[in-house]
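Lab notebook, design round three. We kept the backbone fixed and only want residue identities now. Task for the bench partner: fill in a sequence for the structure below.
Input structure tokens:
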């Protein structure tokens, strides 16, 4: 039996005033919410660039929708934002030149098949001009400190004969071979165009990944690179490239993945994220079994060529998006902590971490060259994401944008962060209550399991594509977002607590959370449903074979047969980390025991299965196996493939279909004739 659960409300986000709100959230609201990202503050801290993404009609076909990003600019002191780009190709990755004279961005202008290039425009206005002409486009780029050059990463183009063979249908693909590596180039800045690029790295020994970071002297660049571009190859190290003689120095030899290097403004240190070295099993091809661990902050002294591990027992979390302060004395970054995304700093000389925000969801962007302000995106359970600026204490953020003014019209369900205990763990979850919730009334409950498993649910704005939490709340449902063991944001012990135990303690953590919401008087035990995508889809398929408490389920891109999944997906070494290694006589029993197809004969829950038709992460055999297992046993099941889609749905009408289909299926089988009626205790 599941343990007795303690239900504690540990953080209450103020409910939206329903009297002010005008209407419930619709599917159109979920899809049309604009997404803001990439805040880049000017060197003098007076302006911020950012991108806004939204669905728009295609210029080639008015019936087709395209997700397009455009660049905006806003003052950090006063005034309304100004849109800078309008081209149908869209624009992304905005940046300021270090002298503040130019704005740069990536855009695939020049035709439907044009690859993304770096474009420039004067900061004081004017039309943009194309700076680069990389045949296969630009992956990432960075300005030199003197603003005279731009370094960029581009993938090697296919040989000319390959392109001609493709045109006549005389082509083939050799699996896990014939790689196209990504390399570093540099081009002089000429707003009038005409500059020729110079290649700086080449060969098949490594492929550059992520962003570039210049040394302040403008003579060197640091970057991370892996031995092949395969997703499953995490043999990633940090390098230093000398632009004058193209000499390359390998900084790290860690068995884990090293990524995101950032050169300090004084030139003395390179900060990066490093996964701890481990005793991972190495296969004959040189690739190792994954070993889920938190990345740590590491510092490389450029002069002495020594590495320092900045791990600290008081900071058992994972940094993301490193930013140096201009004096090189500290690093500032975002950190997932519980159900929030907080800002932390690290004092280099004192070797001390400090938390700068509490109960916030902040995606840090950049720090101004003069150090006076930082730009970031912030959201909450009641407010959509917008651009903000603050000094480096982050004590008084100033809101600079209002990207989704329509959000003020929406009636939102009250949101709480709740905790419960299970088997020695304190488990958290986010609970969204129905709009107009009345204490003493029980409501249908939808459980949404996150992906990963190294992921987490946050207490943020739940109006957007996916599970559609606030839409459910407007339809009279409570929604539980549990963070079971095996997820991020709760320390490395918690992260590794599901090894080798998928479907064990993590499943029990979720079910005790369901019991907690029932015990609180909110959820109706006879009207429960569950859904999830990726690992969340795995857990959903597992749940319906372990209990009949759920009246309906949606399995999205879910793993259902771990054994066949291992040999057919693009990330097999990740699975091996959780099941004792590759499938063998010794390990196969666990692979099979924790697969939903093995227990399909016990499933009675009506199950909707949604899957991308071109998914390589969780190949299409996974949903087909589970569908067949349920269908032949008489369990209500429906399988829907979305053509052209990979592990996530990227097309507008596919996303719209998912939202409608999962809602119709779950309400049909959970509510039946009762509809939206609630029961009183």
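Proposed sequence:
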């Amino acid at each position: 039996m599941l343990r007795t659960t303690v239900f504690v409300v540990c953080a209450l986000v103020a409910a939206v005033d329903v009297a002010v709100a005008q209407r419930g959230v619709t599917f159109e609201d979920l899809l049309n919410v604009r997404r803001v990202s990439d805040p880049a503050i000017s060197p003098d801290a007076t302006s911020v660039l950012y991108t806004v993404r939204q669905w728009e009609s295609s210029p080639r076909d008015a019936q087709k929708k395209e997700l397009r990003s455009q660049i905006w600019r806003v003052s950090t002191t006063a005034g309304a934002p100004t849109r800078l780009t309008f081209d149908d190709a869209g624009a992304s990755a905005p940046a300021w030149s270090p002298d503040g004279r130019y704005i740069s961005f990536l855009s695939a202008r020049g035709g439907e098949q044009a690859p993304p290039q770096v474009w420039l425009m004067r900061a004081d206005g004017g039309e943009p001009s194309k700076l680069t002409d990389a045949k296969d486009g630009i992956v990432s780029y960075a300005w030199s400190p003197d603003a005279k050059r731009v370094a960029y990463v581009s993938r090697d183009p296919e040989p000319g004969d390959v392109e001609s063979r493709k045109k006549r249908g005389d082509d083939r693909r050799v699996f896990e071979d014939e790689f196209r590596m990504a390399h570093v180039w540099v081009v002089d800045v000429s707003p009038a165009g005409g500059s020729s690029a110079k290649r700086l790295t080449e060969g098949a020994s490594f492929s550059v990944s992520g962003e570039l970071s210049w040394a302040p002297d403008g003579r060197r660049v640091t970057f991370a690179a892996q031995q092949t571009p395969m997703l499953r190859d995490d043999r990633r190290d940090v390098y230093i490239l000398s632009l004058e003689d193209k000499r390359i120095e390998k900084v790290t030899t860690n068995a884990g993945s090293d990524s995101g290097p950032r050169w300090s403004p004084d030139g003395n240190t390179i900060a990066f994220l490093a996964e701890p070295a481990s005793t991972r099993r190495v296969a004959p091809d040189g690739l190792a079994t994954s070993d889920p661990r938190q990345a740590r902050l590491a510092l490389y002294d450029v002069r002495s060529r020594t590495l320092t591990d900045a791990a600290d027992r008081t900071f058992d979390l994972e940094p993301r998006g490193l930013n140096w302060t201009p004096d090189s004395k500290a690093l500032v970054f975002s950190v997932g902590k519980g159900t929030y995304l907080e800002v932390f700093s690290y004092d280099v000389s004192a070797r001390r971490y400090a938390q700068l925000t509490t109960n916030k969801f902040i995606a840090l962007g950049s720090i101004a060259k003069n150090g006076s302000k930082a730009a970031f995106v912030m959201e909450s359970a009641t407010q959509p994401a917008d651009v903000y600026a603050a000094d480096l204490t982050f004590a008084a953020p100033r809101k600079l944008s209002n990207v989704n003014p329509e959000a003020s019209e929406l009636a939102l369900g009250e949101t709480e962060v709740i905790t419960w205990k299970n088997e020695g763990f304190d488990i958290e979850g986010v609970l969204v209550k129905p709009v107009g919730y009345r204490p003493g009334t029980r409501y249908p409950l939808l459980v949404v399991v996150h992906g990963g498993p190294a992921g987490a649910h946050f207490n943020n704005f739940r109006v957007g594509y996916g599970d559609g939490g606030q839409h459910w709340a407007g339809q009279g449902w409570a929604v539980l977002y549990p963070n079971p063991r095996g997820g991020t944001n709760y320390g490395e012990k918690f992260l590794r607590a599901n090894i080798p135990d998928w479907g064990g303690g993590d499943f029990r953590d979720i079910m005790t959370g369901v019991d907690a919401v029932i015990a609180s008087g909110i959820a109706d035990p006879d009207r429960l449903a569950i859904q999830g995508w990726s690992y969340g889809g795995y857990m959903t398929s597992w749940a319906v074979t372990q209990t009949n408490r759920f009246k309906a389920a949606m399995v999205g891109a879910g793993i259902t047969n771990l054994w066949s999944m291992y040999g057919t997906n693009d990330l097999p070494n990740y699975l091996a980390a959780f099941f004792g290694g590759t499938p063998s006589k010794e390990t196969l029993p666990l692979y099979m025991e924790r697969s939903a197809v093995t227990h399909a004969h016990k499933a009675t829950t009506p199950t909707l299965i949604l899957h991308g038709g071109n998914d390589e992460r969780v190949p299409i055999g996974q949903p087909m196996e589970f569908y067949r297992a349920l269908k032949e046993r008489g369990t209500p099941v429906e399988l829907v493939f979305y053509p052209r889609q990979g592990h996530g749905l990227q097309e507008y009408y596919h996303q719209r279909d998912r939202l409608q289909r999962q809602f119709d299926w779950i309400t049909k089988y959970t509510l039946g004739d009762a509809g939206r009626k609630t029961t009183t205790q």
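Keep this in mind before ordering anything: DSSP finds eleven helices and 38 strands in the chain.
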